[in-house]
Every structure is written in structure tokens, then in C-alpha cells.
Amino acid sequence: MKKILNLQCVQCGKEHTTRESDYVCNSCGGNLEINYDYKLINKRFDYDVLEKNDNYNMWRYVDLLPVEEHKEMPPVQVGWTPLYRLDDLAKELGISKLYIKDEGRNPTGSIKDRGSAVAVARALELGAKVITDASSGNASDSLACLTSSLDLKTVIFTPKNTPIPKLVQLYMYGAQVIRIDGTYDDAFELCKAASAKYGWYNRAAGFNPFGREGKKTCAFEICEQMQWEAPDKVLVAVGDGTILSGMWKGFTDFNKLGIIEKMPQMIAVQAEGSAAIKNAWENKTEATAVQASTIADSISVNYPRDAYLALQALQESNGMALSVSDEEIITAMKELARKTGIFAEPSGAVTYAGLKKLVEQGAIKKDESVAIVVGGNGLKDIGAAAKAVDISQVFVKPTLEEIEKLGLVKEK
Known about the structure:
412 residues, alpha/beta, Rossmann fold, four-stranded parallel β-sheet
């Protein structure tokens, strides 16, 4: 593809062609970043092109994606999720403008659909027969959905703590599911070994740079939905770090093309029980593994596979990283639902919990605009959501007299 200059290693700087590697550097094993020919892209992609484009999904940005258009893709709509402006909640929190990007409105209820869409398109270009992934649910659900109607066998490695609703999605879409008696990191390593041995195309986050490129379309949409502006701060839940690095790449792409001028400050929010990137940021060191344990399974990782680029995004954007407890996450799930109508899974509510903490710390100026990304729908993990509410109500007899005993009926 002429629009791609190279795939460059973020560690040693070695440049690769798309024929040499789709995954990591063949010299040092570092992650690859896809570099584009922006001068070429700028000749056919600008404001006017987007305003005339009535294709309201992530493929409206195909000129900025490392794949060509595909007729084989399934008909489900990925992307163009709503961006809500919540003035009342912003006033309650004491900030100027608050936007919430509801990624739970994607086909499988997760932002991971964006990364899977590009990975599937790339696998089709290469003529792959089998595509594989390791995930605690969201990424693999999205992959299974997008390949369900295609002639592309899907093999999924899931860790032991995968929530049942996410497992059910996998089986419904017809994926070959391999349940691992271990952690996400165990599943990741086995998936990588199997794909290398059997020649399967590997979608795994933090290993396949094409997936990262799909996630940047969330940033494109935020800018377009805000009338060609970026917010002052963007809060993203972080596990492997791929969504954070991908979204920063999206804002950078738009800035290089002259579509936006102001760049946002990226804020990584992690669960306290899985805070490798937050620890590295505070200690000014490389990320090291933790023993992950959190209710937010989608961001529960021992070692973040895209840590280098995630930390680079924080540095380049003058950003910051913080963590929140599981108790704060559970509270955020309930508050988010009751104050906005958005039902978020734990990893989706992490950003709202982080926002509240930043407000309490005085880290957000009153005139700043803030966007938080809610990355997954609460229906993805009902078990976790049940911890935020009391569903142990005693049954009542089906009579009006019983209703009156509850104290709900007031005199006219």
C-alpha cells in the first residue's frame, strides 16, 4: 500500500515493510508502529471529504487505516458511537465541559470491535484461513463477531477469569474456544506460540500493530463530533496500553493533516490491582509485571504489551496516569448509570472513577473540556454489576394492598 511508508520498531528504530512483518521487530522483538505518507493522504483526505461522506462507521477513515476497502466485511456497524455532552454532570463536578464517548454501542458492546475490524481486514488481504486471539472477553468477542459470517476460522484463547456473558458471545458467534487454566498472560503466550507454529494470523493486542490502528478511529470521531476540535483532556482505561496509544495516534494523525490544531492531554486510568503503566509513569521507569487482580477483567494484565507506546503517549501529550480501587470502580458503575443512563462494565466505568478522583485532587481546571471513553457495556459482565446494587428484594403478593405497604403510594 502506497500510503504506508513502513512499520518501524519503537525500540530499536528498524524499519520493516508490510511483507517482512505484521507483528514485532525481527531484530529486537520490539513492537512496531505503522508510519504513513501524510503528503499522499492529504491529497485525498480532508474536511470536505469527510463532510460529503455518508458512511457513518469507522471505515469513513479508511484512507488513514493500513488496509484497503473490503466488500467481504460483515454488515455490522463498527464505530460512529455517540459522544454525549453532559452539561449538568459537568456543573455538578465543577468542570467546564464533559463529553462521554459511549463505546458500548459497538456491535459486541466494546471499543475492541475497532481493532478487530482492521485486524480482520488485514487477515483477509493476506489470505489467512485461521485468525486467533487471546483475551479475557472483549477483544475475542469482537473478533468472533466480525468473522462469524466469513470463511475465516477463529480460534480464541480465554483465561480462567473470563466472565460468562463474554464466553457466551464467543460460543454464539461460533468461535473455537480454548479455555486456559491460567491468567490472560498465560493465554497470550500460548496464543502467540500456536500462531507461530501453525501459521495462524494473530490479532493479539500489543503484538499486532494493525489492531492499534483500528482503535485510533475513536479519536477521529471525537474530533469530528466536537466540530473539528480535540478536548483538553481524554481519559482512557488502560490494560495492555493499546487503546491509549492508538487514540493518541489518532489525534496525532489529524494534527499532522491539519484537521485539528490543539492536541489533548492523555490520561491513563488503571485499576489499582493492575497498575503496571501507572507505576512506571510515576517511577519514571520501564513497565514491569505486576500480579494483576481486579474486578475490571478487561484491563487486568500482569505485563502491558503496549507499554512503551502508552508511556510515550503520556510523555508526548504531557499526560498523567492514576489508579482507582475496585470499590471506586463499583461506585462509578452505579453513578454513571444513574446520572447518564450509560451502563458500563467495570473497565468502562474506570474512566469516570478516574475523573472523580482528578476533580477531587484539583487536577482539572474549571475552563477545561474533558472527554472520557467508556470502553464497554455493563451487560458484558452482569456479575460485576450486581455487586454495585442490592437485588435481594423480598417478593410481594400481587395486590394493591401489598404495594401500599411499601410506602410508594402518596395521597392525592
